[in-house]
Amino acid sequence: MSEIPATSTERRTFLGLLLGGIGAIAAGALGWSVFRFLSPIDRGNEDSQVRIARSLVAVGGAHFFAFQGRPAVVVQPAAGEFIALSAVCTHLGCIIKWQNDSQDFLCPCHAGRFSPSGQVLSGPPPSALDSYTVTLDGDDLLIG
Amino acid sequence: MKKNPTLLFFLFAAALLFSGQPSFAATTTVCIECHGDLPGDLGEVPVAEWQTSVHARYQTSCHDCHGGDPTDYAMAMTAERGFIGVPEYEDIPAFCGRCHVGVEEDYRESLHGQVLAFGGPNCATCHDNHAVQVATIDLINEDSCSRCHSYERPALIKEEISATETMLSQLETSIAALYRVGIDTSRLEDELFATRNDFRRLFHSVDIDKIRAQTAQFHSDLEQTKAAVAELEDTMGQRKLAGGALVLLLLLGGCIGLLIRRSYHDQE
Questions:
Q1: Is the distance from CB of A62 to CB of A75 less than 8 angstroms?
Q2: A chain contacts of residue B198, beta-carbon cutoff 8 Å
Q3: Tens of pLDDT, residues A34-91
Q4: Which residue, among B30, B105, B18, has the nearest Cα to B62 in the 3D structure?
Q5: Which domain holds residue A90?
Q6: So what's the ipTM on this one?
Q7: Which residues contact A84 (CB under 8 A, 6 or more apart)?
Q8: Does any domain span residue B183?
């Protein structure tokens, strides 16, 4: 049985289909990359809140906890006034400590000092600590 | 070709801005201007040593440790402007501890700190003073430790911390590599720096039992960072594979395009 050779038109149609398929895949890959680039970053549980009993935070004291997977702290500088902050120093990322005597935060790495509201008092930190919203809910504090 | 002077100016300005060279002007103070020309220990030696140090790299200059006013020749070394000068031997831990708070705390509790008043080592004994470098595990070595006591105990401590130190170094390299390819590694860098600082505080205690007890926790913290790094590396690997496949597809597409073109020539 002899084979009939494909005509140029048939060959072109076949090759055109192949090229179209490759073009579609390439366009899909490009479109997906652009879509991923423009999509908002998935921040996981960023919107989640943390509930902490008010009794854990003494007046003039601090309570450390984890917020969105990172160390955070809530302080009560005056009765009924609660401030929640990131406990990560803005200089190089060390965890700050609460100083009961001086009523401020101290970073043990390079002696950065922050006020109870998270403002830089001295040392190398370039900016204030991130702060979080605190809502009173009965005997609890809702943070975030 | 006609050159556009405005464009050349902006290119020159951009090259200056982004050259990445440290600005010497930022670290030139009246301290260095005067002492840099003095011979010996009051001038050229400490200045030259400081210029090689980690402090110089991060623009921590003379006045940050010795106090004084780095902008005023006349008042630079006056108590009025906070000049401290050279600390006494026993005051060196407090001198360095103004910035290195945590390390000082562990040092004070250590055997080293407890024998300071009897000639025990201070910070500069191991880290040097003006030529201070980024601390590594290599600071614990027979030559250095044997100046004061046998190397048996330091060797045990070094052995205990070496696995964690190796892990720290490897993670540092991996995170730097991820940063170079455009990944935002700031959070990982922060976590690693915090862990490393706490770990190095720990071995300033020179207490082998304490180090043994706490090293496992550091190892566990680092495992978490390692897992996050591995996840990012996997993503980068997948991107490389996908990119490679796309390039192959485009090459194939080019070949098919050539074949289509050839089919028109055949028809003629």
A1: yes
A2: 94
A3: 998 898 876 666 568 899 999 999 999 999 999 988 899 999 999 989 999 999 999 9
A4: B30
A5: 50-143
A6: 0.75
A7: A67, A72, A73, A74, A131, A132, A133, A134, A141, A143, A144
A8: yes
Instruction: Count structural domains, chain B.
Output: 1
In a domain, residue A9? The reply is yes
pTM, to two decimals: 0.77
Helix (H, G, I), strand (E, B) or coil at A136: strand
Per-residue model confidence (pLDDT) at position B5 = 56
- Taking the CA of residue A14 and the nearest CA in chain B, the distance in Å comes to 9
Nearest CA in chain A to B242: A29
Counting one residue from chain A and one from chain B, the pairs whose CB atoms sit within 8 A come to 72
In a domain, A69, yes or no: yes
Asked if B267 reaches chain A (Cβ–Cβ under 8 Å), the answer is yes
Q: Which of A94, A106, A105 is nearest to B195 (CA)?
A: A94
Contact of B48 with chain A, judged by CB distance below 8 Å, is answered with: no
**In chain B, which residues have their Cβ closer than 8 Å to the Cβ of A16?**
260
Considering its fold, how many domains does chain A have in total?
Answer: 2
The predicted pLDDT at position B265 comes to: 81
The domain of B171 spans: 137-233
Residue B116 covered by a domain: no
pLDDT-derived band at B20, boundaries 50, 70, 90: very low
* Nearest residue on chain B to A33, alpha-carbon basis: B239
From the list B187, B194, B249, the residue facing A22 with the nearest CB is B249
Q: For residue A45, is it within any domain?
A: no
- Asked if residue B262 is part of any domain, the answer here is no
Residue A133 belongs to a domain:
yes
